[in-house]
Write a structure and sequence with these properties.
The complex is a heterodimer of chains A (138) and B (79). By secondary structure, chain A is α+β, with helices and mostly antiparallel strands. Chain A has one domain: Aldehyde Oxidoreductase, domain 3 (Alpha-Beta Complex). In chain A, strands 3, 4, 6, 8 and 9 form a five-stranded antiparallel β-sheet that branches. A four-stranded mixed β-sheet of chain A has the order 1-5-7-2. In chain A, helix 2 packs antiparallel against helix 3. Chain B is of the alpha+beta class. Chain B has a single domain, classed as Beta-grasp domain (Ubiquitin-like (UB roll)), CATH 3.10.20. Chain B has a five-stranded mixed β-sheet. The longest helix of chain B has 11 residues. At the A-B interface, strand 4, helix 2, helix 3 and strand 8 of A face helix 1 and strand 4 of B. Chain B: This is Molybdopterin synthase sulfur carrier subunit. Chain B: InterPro entries: Beta-grasp_dom_sf, MOCS2A, Mopterin_synth/thiamin_S_b, ThiS/MoaD-like.
């Protein structure tokens, strides 16, 4: 299977290599996004993600398809988690595999940057005394 | 006409779904946005406000019949 596109409760980062491995690929590039302990010097207790799943999967498919076409990728993985995630937990994994490394490096960056721009997933930062929807306000 | 709300818009409205009755139903995406901003002034303070029709981003000019799946998309923040 060329593409793996998923919204899941928990991300297992160990399986992404197997999913991207391909006899025609000499390069595999993976980005993992995780929960960081501090935002603007404030301690984050957890992040909570929610999604409009049907649309999110469609948008992720579009991103994967355009990357496969642009960089002639052999395999693509796009997987995002939902629910509450604690510090150091992975929340997103994207990866690409291609014949040579330049293509998969560029594609991997495109996958995560475009996901953050268009895919309907929302993140709430939970601090000790407040919660904030990220990017909602100027 | 059913409208789904996500993220901060769900908090502003206090519900994940609103039903507009036939007479109040907006004719297109732009008038739906205007109606929401008029009803919930907090919407005008958001960085952006998009609407999805049948799970695709929709332009303001797109006409609405009321049979679509309509969703309000506040600024996304995945990753």
């Amino acid at each position: 299977m060329k593409k793996v596109i998923e919204i899941v409760d928990t991300i297992d980062t160990a399986k992404v290599y197997t999913e991207l491995s391909d006899p025609k690929s000499g390069g595999i590039c993976v980005f993992v996004g995780a929960v960081r302990e501090f935002t603007n010097n404030e301690e984050v207790v957890a992040l909570e993600f929610e999604t409009y799943k049907e649309m999110a999967l469609k948008e992720m498919e579009k991103i994967a398809d355009s990357a496969i076409e642009k960089w002639a990728l052999n395999k693509v993985v796009m997987r995002h988690a939902v629910g509450e995630k604690g510090v150091e937990e992975p929340v997103v994994v994207v990866g690409a595999s291609s014949a040579h490394r330049d293509a998969c490096f560029e594609a991997c960056r495109y996958l995560i940057d475009t996901l953050k721009e268009t895919v309907p997933i929302w993140k709430k930062e939970k601090f000790k005394n407040k919660t904030i929807w990220v990017s909602a306000h100027p | 006409m059913n409208v789904l709300f996500f993220g901060i818009t769900k908090d502003i409205v206090g519900s994940s779904e609103i039903n507009f009755n036939e007479e109040l139903k907006p004719a297109n995406v732009g008038s739906l946005k205007k109606k929401l901003i008029d009803t919930y002034p907090e919407f005008s303070k958001l960085n952006s406000l998009a609407v999805a029709v049948n799970s695709e981003y929709a332009d303001d000019t797109l006409a609405l019949t009321g049979n679509e799946e309509i969703a309000i998309i506040p600024p996304v923040s995945g990753g």
